[in-house]
Design goal:
Layout (H helix, E strand, L loop, with lengths): L14 H14 L4 H9 L4 H10 L14 H9 L4
């Protein structure tokens, strides 16, 4: 089994790299849509976990490029040029 790294939301972390790792694990495990956000949120820590607690009611799905998606919201928060 592949180890999933935690994401802390620190400046030196690359959220896009972390998302790529998470997405590969989701794909490999054929994870059902309904579980994606719950599983991914479990790997958020510190700043990132607090961000999710505040915003989770606005996040309605995991998919990218969709309003209300986890991926879109986390990129907006943790990538300065999005």
């Amino acid at each position: 089994m592949v180890k999933i790294n935690y994401y802390y939301g620190k400046a030196r972390e690359d959220v896009e790299k972390w998302l790529a790792e998470i997405n590969q694990i989701i794909k490999t495990n054929n994870m059902i849509v309904e579980r994606k956000i719950t599983v991914v949120a479990a790997y958020l820590r510190d700043i990132a976990a607090n961000w999710y607690k505040v915003n989770k009611n606005n996040i309605i799905q995991y998919a990218d490029e969709v309003e209300g998606s986890f991926i879109k919201w986390i990129k907006v928060r943790f990538i300065s040029d999005v």
